[in-house]
Design goal:
WH-like_DNA-bd_sf; xylose metabolism; about 375 residues; binds zinc ion; Nucleotidyltransferase, domain 5; 3 domains; ROK family protein; single chain; globular; alpha/beta; Arc Repressor Mutant, subunit A; 13 helices; 14 strands
């Protein structure tokens, strides 16, 4: 295994790697032209990257119009390393092992769990054990583990998880288990990073994750806007209804008490008298159940109001909705957009995430690869 993974990659080396990823296949001469580095630097950096097996020579290209030797083309070696990403939610854990281009090697999910302070480490290790039971041979092996947490995280500590309890020092516990870097990040932030890296062409987006609660991730040029105390994006805890329903955060009337999937399921199970999941919501909607339709309409209006306010604060290029219900009932989107008519929100694009995969996991992969390659504005 090549022992180069935990040092921060040198700046010019990262520029060359980024150019190689963007251009797919390129000659050394073109690398020099695009990167602005001189040919001698490009030559020595590409030699190092070839030795590290992060890039490969593919074929002999065509000679330029001026004649001369035919160039040898280079590409990024997307199979050079592996990345682990987990989404640890109150009642499920999902995980993927991927190559460094995001291609999935294996995936695991456990549902109907109750994650607690006592069992979280054991459950996480069980998922990682399953994911890595068959490990493909790669030059750099696993270069990082990123875990999405449904709550507030600072660099190393879990600060606040309203819907479940986790050990504050979870990262420290995990570091003791592995010889690769471990990252913890808020799940909505990761979903935004996943969109930025794998689907979106824009440099400025907000991704709204609607699950038990509602969180937003804000990305600009590949960088998450976390805020001074890493509380940015907590749109679910902005007050929608004065003196409304009590929220675990201490407020009354928070958005997520009215417009999250959790709130929708609670409301519908009370009025329909049965256990509600996203599958039942969609099934009843298709059957034209008016109670469900009215609840979804109200839900869309609330979300539209919230997105309108958020757009006025952050001025994004696009807002991406990450919701299993919106993905299955896209006709809810115009109801939501009908609330966005003001000067500061009418031009903001709103779109339902096109990815069926768990975006938090893709964001986790992105965060690990960003660190490994030292490329912040990574687009794969
Ligand atoms: Zn709240």
């Amino acid at each position: 295994m090549i022992n180069s993974k935990y040092t921060i990659r040198e700046h010019n080396e990262a520029i060359i790697l980024k150019t190689l990823i963007d251009e797919k296949e390129i000659s050394r001469a073109a690398l020099a032209e695009i990167s602005g580095l001189n040919k001698a630097s490009v030559s020595s950096i590409t030699k190092k990257l070839l030795d590290d097996k992060l890039i490969v020579e593919t074929r002999v290209g065509n000679a330029s119009n001026l004649g001369g030797r035919k160039p040898i083309m280079l590409t990024f070696n997307s199979k050079a390393a592996l990345s682990l990403a987990l989404d640890v939610a109150p009642h499920y854990i999902e995980g993927v092992l991927t190559y460094i281009d995001g291609e999935i090697v294996s995936e695991v999910s456990f549902h109907d769990l109750d994650i607690t302070i006592e069992n979280s480490l054991e459950q996480i290790l069980r998922v990682i054990n399953d994911l890595t039971s068959i490990l493909p041979k790669t030059p750099h092996d696993i270069v990082g583990l990123c875990i999405g947490i449904h709550g507030l995280i600072d660099e190393d500590t879990i600060l606040y998880t309203p819907n479940y309890q986790l050990p504050r020092n979870l990262k420290e516990q995990l570091i003791q288990q592995f010889n690769f870097p471990v990252y913890l990040e808020n799940e909505a932030n990761l979903a935004a990073l996943g969109e930025y890296t794998f689907t979106s062409r824009t440099d400025s987006l907000i991704s709204l994750s609607i699950h038990t609660g509602i969180g937003a991730g804000i990305v600009e040029n590949g960088l998450l806007r976390n805020g001074k105390h890493r509380k940015a994006g907590e749109i679910g805890h902005t007050i929608l209804i004065p003196n409304g329903k009590i929220c675990p955060c201490g407020n009354h009337g928070c958005l997520e008490q009215y417009a999250s999937h959790g709130a929708l399921y609670r409301e519908l199970s009370a009025s329909l008298g049965k256990n509600i999941t996203s599958a039942t919501v969609v099934a009843e909607y298709i059957k034209d159940n008016h109670i469900v339709k009215d609840a979804l309409k109200k839900n869309a209006e609330y979300l539209g109001i919230a997105i309108s306010s958020f757009s006025a604060v952050y001025d994004p290029d696009i807002v991406i909705i990450n919701s299993s219900i919106y993905r299955q009932i896209p006709e809810l989107l115009p109801l939501l957009q009908a609330q966005m008519t003001g000067h500061f929100s009418k031009d903001v694009k709103v779109q339902i995430s096109s990815l069926n995969q768990n975006l938090t996991l893709l964001g986790g992969v992105s965060k690990t690869i960003q660190h490994f390659l030292n490329i912040q504005n990574l687009k794969l």
